[in-house]
Design a protein that fits this description.
Largest sheet: none
Structural class: mainly alpha
Distance between the termini: 33 Å
Number of domains: 1
Strand content: under 5%
Number of strands: 0
Radius of gyration: 16 Å
Oligomer: single chain
Length: 98
């Protein structure tokens, strides 16, 4: 599978690797999930703060680089939340509504 950007699979691997490195950085800075567990709502508030920073970075800079750096942080915080609380996939939500 590839796309117009020259290889979706390779790009995904690069993205997931970057997310892993950012998670390692955040864990080193703030402590791991066992040392600092949070409720889902707390994770959402952290993600909102990081998203606000991404929006501000995009509005204030020329180009996307700073905003993309902040987006990586948003995603990495989301990964921490899902790691702590588990993943509920789209199919499970649809099944629960039946």
């Amino acid at each position: 599978m590839s796309d117009i950007f020259g290889g979706e699979i390779g790009r995904r691997e690069m993205v997931f690797d970057a997310i892993g490195r950012e998670r390692d950085y955040q864990d080193a800075k703030w402590g791991g999930l066992q040392e600092r567990p949070k409720q889902v709502g707390s994770w959402l508030l952290i993600m909102q703060g990081e998203l606000d920073e991404a929006i501000q970075a995009w509005q204030k800079s020329r180009g996307d680089e700073k905003a993309l750096e902040e987006i990586l942080q948003v995603i990495s915080v989301g990964v921490a939340c899902l790691t702590q609380h588990g993943v509920v996939e789209r199919a499970a939500i649809a099944e629960a509504k039946k």
